[in-house]
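Cross-posted from the bioinformatics board.
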Amino acid sequence: MRELRLGLAAVLLVGLVLFPVYWMLVTASVPSHIVLSRQPPLLPQWNDMSFAAFTGVLDRRPVWTWLVNSLFVSGASVVLSLVIATLAGYSLSRFRSRAQEASGMTLLVSKMLPGSLIVIPFYIMFANAGLIDNRFALVIANTSVGVPFATWMMKGFFDGIPADLDAAARIDGCTRLQALLYVVLPAAKPGIAACAVYLFIVAWADFVFARTLVTDPRLWTVTTGLASFVGEHNIDWPGLMAAGTLSMLPVFILFLLLEPFLVSGLSAGSVK
Amino acid sequence: MKTAAPRMSGMERRDRRFALALLSPALIVTGLLILYPMYMVVMLSLREGKSMNFLESAGRPLGFGHYAAVLTDPATWASVTTTLIYTAGSMIPAFLGGFAFALLLNEKFPGRRWLRSLALLPWAVPGVLVSVLFLWLLDASYGIVNALLRDAGWIARDIAWFTDERTAMFAVILPTVWKSLPFFTLTILAALQAVPEELYEAARMDGADKVQRLRFVTWPAVRGAAVLAFVLNTLWAFREFDIIFATTGGGPYRATETLGIRAYLEAFSYFEIGRACVLGMVMLAIALLVVMAARRPLQKEFF
């Protein structure tokens, strides 16, 4: 009985927490006259379901282009950060050096650095390099955010893999690099996967770099695209919610697939 | 120093070289994309005067002119207050809510695992999408929140949450709480699950009631994790940009203009790079104070 009551309370609370997402899905999938009303129904009828908002917004705005741009920028910066962070994380985990203390410090500093401040020197640096309105500028900017926390996370994962494994591989004739590539990395796969998801979620959410370093609408990412609806005279709410739903899809899929890894990594606390 | 260090064998030297080689890309990124930009910010904050061209600052003399101007400007201190209200106003409820939620999810009931995953979802929603979701929920004419409050008879007239000076701060705090609450829930829940059941048994045997168990068993066990989560989330909220910028842009009448927003506007709307960088330095100084105050829990995590 007590279990049931607690379960019910938890369901209600989670329902309340997820209400904004629910309302996005509802707004995107019923005809606009139903939600654009003084008395919008909390539970719309099933047979009112319509995808007009999706088709409409895809016709009027280059949502696919935004999504492709976001995928390119996030994907490339995930790969770049992950390679750099995996190597560095392994080095920090296995070899004692002064860099070890410095890396924790770097992570902390990067947590203190406001994005809206660091984007100023980035703007100047990229402008001097002729990289404004270039997606690679966004890849590099996102990598600068990703590398510190990904390195720290990977170090944590490597710390959990016994160093005897490397030693055994060395005895079997592997070089240091081979031991890392063929023996340690396969064992670190779950950690690498979790790290990749984090990097993706962070890069996918980037707004300050995308808004500042890119002005050409053809290069907008999905966050700049979503923000462009706001401030218009008559905001197309169903269309905006449809675009919002599409922008959540990749994150949602990753989230469902990798939830078990996420929980272990998040509680390690390095991400925020 | 050199003579005091023990002689390195060839093996160790090769180890060191290997370690350094693996580390070097990360060192380059850190140097080029964190340290050098920070150096630039410091230098830009010291360049006197203003040039219409964003990229030309090298020729101007160094001095503390921008510091004097910014630090004596009452608008700066208004922004500091706004930032502190925004940070405390969102972190305290998010912490309490996240804690309560974690206590609930720590109980045993069917479907707990699923609910825990779902409760984590807001953490993964991009800040701009969070903004857009709450702009819609709190819309002045068609927002569901106004409709529900009207139905309940709590308000007579619609509230323009984001554009009314009196409610704008609350309106930007709400999505911030929503986005940061799951992180608190998750980190505190992880600590709760590490508390051995026997401790509660023993406390019960000793006649401790619910409140006493919470105070003398639960809290000491999760304190470390809770404090760390609070500090990290505070640093995040303190520099938060996306949610405020995409909803109110700092308005109306600067009601939600935090230091982060102010610095960005100075740089990219008014081209006052020097002022923007001084504001950034003020932010870093305050963040540093937070870090110093929370030295102990941070030390355990980062060093």
